[in-house]
Design brief:
This protein is of the alpha/beta class and 283 residues long. The protein contains 13 helices and eight strands. The chain has a single domain (11-277), classed as Rossmann fold (3-Layer(aba) Sandwich), CATH 3.40.50. The protein has helices at residues 26-33, 51-56, 59-62, 66-78, 91-101, 124-129, 131-134, 148-154, 161-171, 177-184, 219-227, 254-269, 274-277; strands at 11-15, 38-40, 85-89, 107-111, 143-144, 175-176, 206-211, 236-241. Helix 8 packs across helix 9.
Length: 283
């Protein structure tokens, strides 16, 4: 297990996903900070307030766009003195891939990530998980409520209903309809914000992690995403944790995924990352 940062990589940027806020990283952030890393958990632009405030007024969520989110994190990373490890969950994993495509980061980890443009098939469980958004095309311009029932199917399916409901109460917020539609229909948009150059050789190492019981983004989606990078000489790895749901922030056993992601990222960042052996992008 990585016990402390090296002299070259000492910062981790954690990016949350759809239906969540930065609070979803609280356990991972504490675990990484205890090992001596500087851990940043910046929210999507406009979502810096607490879960309860976003539930009361989800207007900032409705305004989200993938390009704006990427630009937001680009600015944060470029202000750092050294390239960080970048980890993103769900749609945060898509953002992570786009950031690496821009030449940012020392290493990237997509934790049950939403796919980049080019993954052609979404399984029924993915569509059912997002039914609250997809059922009405007008939701593209809204922040769409995510009920406790929605959460139990999409995130808490390996947990008891009581534990799932407690997690929903602490973490869940309405979903950004526009962001979801951008991702779901990326293959129909020639100018999709979810597009990356999967053949790019000069990018930081990338790990994509899947959960065997994930209803939102099953292993078939994430392995297909990883396969898109096969013509790149940059390091791309895929790892599946059997029996794990989409709720990586608090499902029992979350520590295994957190430690695996950190160990892999630290090793790759300090051995093969082009941003570490050269200079930080944008500096």
């Amino acid at each position: 297990m990585a016990s402390a940062p090296t002299g070259r990589v000492d910062t981790i940027v954690l990016i949350h996903g759809l239906w969540m806020t930065s609070r979803s990283w609280e356990r991972w952030a504490d675990r990484y900070a205890a090992r001596g890393f500087r851990v940043l958990t910046p929210a999507w632009p406009g979502m810096e307030v607490e879960v309860e405030a976003l539930r009361a007024d989800p207007t900032p969520i409705a305004q989200q766009r993938i390009a704006d989110i990427v630009d937001h994190y680009t600015g944060i990373i470029r202000e750092l003195p050294r390239p960080p490890i970048v980890m993103g969950h769900s749609f945060g994993g898509l953002i992570t891939q786009i950031l690496l495509d821009r030449g940012l980061g020392a290493a990237g980890v997509g934790v049950h990530p939403a796919p980049v443009k080019g993954v052609l098939k979404l399984p029924l469980s993915t569509l059912r998980s997002a039914f609250s958004i997809l059922r009405n095309p007008a939701n593209r311009h809204r922040a769409v409520w995510f009920s406790a029932d929605d959460f139990h199917y999409a995130f808490g399916n390996t947990m008891s209903r009581a534990d799932s409901d407690a997690a929903w109460e602490r973490y869940a917020v309405p979903g950004a309809g526009h962001v979801f539609f951008e991702g779901a229909f990326a293959n129909l948009d020639p100018d999709s914000a979810a597009q990356v150059d999967t053949r790019r050789d000069a990018r930081a190492p990338l790990l994509l992690i899947a959960g065997g019981a994930d209803h939102v983004l099953p292993p078939s989606v994430i392995s297909s995403n990883a396969a898109l990078y096969q013509k790149s000489t940059a390091v791309t790895a895929y790892h599946q944790f059997p029996g794990r749901s989409h709720f990586v922030g608090g499902e029992p056993g979350w520590e295994q995924q957190a430690d695996y992601a950190l160990d892999w990222a630290v090793e790759m960042a300090n051995t093969v990352s082009p941003t570490v052996v050269s200079t930080a992008p944008g500096r």
